[in-house]
Every structure is written in structure tokens, then in C-alpha cells.
Design goal:
343 residues, 5-stranded mixed beta sheet, 5-stranded antiparallel beta sheet, 10 strands
Length: 343
């Protein structure tokens, strides 16, 4: 989900409590605190966690990229992780040739035949628009057999072009080698236990500093809820989250229902949150005016049926163009790590 979706979800969750709504009506910031907590997990990821990551292998193709050399480096890293049983972190750097000029290259993981493939692509702009006729003469896809069973669940092809490149962690799981995409993302920062801890810590600190333990209690509650709402929304996607850190250090895979950049799920999240905010503000007022049944039917029931149906149809139609869709979704996820957007 995008940052706005997470923020407005946190605000909406806070408004389910009359004490929080009354605090907001008196000029308090408890509803806003829920929204801030809603974007906190990704803020921690993109401002801190990604910079703490250490890499065992770095692919830096240079201005004259060699697909065979990139492929050989990948195979060596994959085999080392499998044979030693020790996780290997790898980053694939981009090829920047100018202020708005990049050379694209693509990496494919092919579990069906336990191979990887590398292809040097065209020149692209920062907006990832290819320049016609800019492909290297004689460029071809180079394939290498890894020789170990691969497990890759995010995307078959990763196109590396603008900004920073993707990162991977190769980890042996039984007799298979799993390819983790952006392994620093959705780990310790996306923990329900951490959400509870942050809420408790904030509540205790505010109570000790202000002496107003009632407000401090609700500050802790809305912080925990906003933080947890973000995590559970992200869990609906493909990447999953480390829900129980520090008891576990592994991401639990998600069901793959949505992608972070999908327009309809993001719109529906914002729309639903706004509908609940209005509904909660009305029902906790001195003179409620909204009839719950008709209001919820028209503002939530009808839009959900129409938009979810449209989303399902769009996904089925898009399956035929799966490679390009997966590229865009992977690009959306990498772009989240670039300023100025967080989410």
C-alpha cells in the first residue's frame, strides 16, 4: 500500500473510540497520531533499515556491462549460499550514464529449470522510458544453470534501471534455495510485537512526562492500532512481513492478493477509511444524523462490490501480459525506497 493509504487507515482506526474523537474535537492530536503510526513501519525501513543492510556480493556492471560476467557472479553467489547453508545478501547496482540516462539490464530466475538469465537492455530515462534503437548491437540473453533447486515467489524477471538497484537474499530452506526480494523490507519493522511495544513505550513516556495517564493510554492504543493496521495491510501482498519479530527473524509470505502500487486497492482503502471516519465522527456526536444501514450500504457495500469486481477482471486480463505487469510492480516497490515518496 502507498503511504497515504496507510496514513488514512491509522486515522480511521483511531476514530472508532469515542474518547479519541472527543480529544480531536477539543484540539487534541490523538487521531493524527494514529495516522503517523500508520506510516511509521515504512519510515523505519526506508530511512534506517535499508542503510544498515550489509551485502556479501555487489554487482556493479559499469558503463560497458557484460551479461556473462553478471550471470557468473549470480551463479557463484547462489551456489555458495546453497553449499554453505549461509545466507548471501546481494545488491544489483544500476548503470547510470547521465543525469537522465541509464542502461537497463534484466535478471531472471527460472525455477522450472534451475537457471538464471541476464540480458542487457536499452537506454532508459529516469522515468523508465526506453530510447528507441538504443539496444547494444549483438546483445543477447545469457543463461546459466545454477545446479540447485530454486524457489522464487515474487517475480520471475527483475529489470534494473533507474535510481538504486534491487537487493536479494539467497537462503537455503531444506533442499531448495529461496530468492528473497528486498529482504531488508517488511522485516523487524513490520512486527505486531513491535507495534505493541511502541504503543506501550509511548504511553508510558507520555504518562510520565505529562501526568495525564488517560490521554497517554489512548495515545498508546492508537499508536499500536495504526502501526498494526499498516502491517496487516502489507501482509495481503506477495512480500509478507516478519509478524512476530523478535521471536522470529523470517518474513511470513503473504497470500499475494494485491501489490503495493495497485490503484484500485489503494483507492478502496482510502475511500473506506474516509467513510468510517465520517461515520464515527457522526455517531459519537451529540446529534447523529446518519442512518447506519443505508449509509454503510451505499458508501461501502456498493463501492466494494463494484471495485473488487473490476479489480478481479483487470487482474485476469492482465495475466496475459504478466511479464510487463510484474516489472511495473517490482519497479513500484523499488521506487518506494527513493525520495520523496515513502510508502
Amino acid at each position: 500500500m502507498k503511504g497515504l493509504s496507510h496514513f488514512i487507515t491509522g486515522v480511521a482506526l483511531a476514530t472508532f473510540f469515542p474518547e479519541v474523537v472527543r480529544n480531536g474535537a477539543l484540539g487534541g492530536l490523538l487521531p493524527m497520531l494514529g495516522g503517523i503510526a500508520g506510516i511509521l513501519p515504512d519510515t523505519l525501513d526506508f530511512k534506517f533499515a535499508r542503510y544498515w543492510e550489509k551485502f556479501d556480493v555487489e554487482i556493479d556492471p559499469g558503463a560497458q556491462p557484460d551479461a556473462a560476467a553478471i550471470a557468473d557472479t549470480l551463479v557463484a553467489a547462489l551456489r555458495q549460499a546453497y553449499e554453505t547453508g549461509k545466507d548471501c545478501n546481494l545488491v544489483a547496482h544500476t548503470i547510470r550514464l547521465g543525469a537522465d540516462l541509464w542502461r537497463e539490464y534484466a535478471i531472471r530466475f527460472i525455477p522450472e529449470c534451475d537457471e538464471i538469465a541476464v540480458r542487457i537492455g536499452p537506454l532508459v530515462s529516469t522515468g523508465q522510458v526506453a530510447l528507441p534503437g538504443s539496444e547494444l548491437a549483438g546483445a543477447r540473453e545469457v543463461r546459466r544453470r545454477v545446479g540447485v533447486p530454486l524457489l522464487n515467489t515474487y517475480s520471475e524477471e527483475y529489470r534494473i534501471n533507474a535510481f538504486s538497484g534491487p537487493t536479494f537474499r539467497f537462503a537455503r530452506e531444506g533442499e531448495q534455495l529461496r530468492v528473497h526480494f528486498l529482504d531488508w523490507h517488511h522485516r523487524w519493522t513490520h512486527s505486531l510485537i513491535l507495534a505493541l511495544g511502541v504503543g506501550l513505550l509511548l504511553g508510558v513516556l507520555l504518562g510520565a512526562l505529562t501526568g495525564n495517564w488517560n490521554t497517554a493510554w489512548w495515545a498508546g492504543v492508537v499508536t499500536c492500532l495504526g502501526f498494526s493496521g499498516h502491517i496487516l495491510e502489507d501482509q495481503l501482498g506477495h512480500m509478507g512481513s516478519n509478524l512476530f519479530w523478535p521471536l522470529s527473524d523470517r518474513r511470513l509470505p503473504g497470500p499475494g492478493l494485491i501489490h503495493a502500487g495497485d490503484a484500485i486497492p489503494n483507492f478502496l482503502t482510502v475511500w473506506t477509511s474516509l467513510a468510517f471516519i465520517l461515520f464515527n465522527l457522526d455517531r459519537f456526536s451529540a446529534a447523529p444524523r446518519l442512518a447506519p444501514g443505508p449509509y454503510l450500504f451505499w458508501t461501502l457495500g456498493v463501492p466494494w462490490v463494484l471495485l473488487v469486481g473490476l479489480y478481479v477482471v483487470a487482474k485476469r486480463r492482465g495475466a496475459a501480459a504478466g511479464a510487463s505487469l510484474e516489472h511495473q510492480r517490482q519497479a513500484d516497490k523499488i521506487a518506494e525506497a527513493e525520495p520523496p515518496e515513502i510508502g
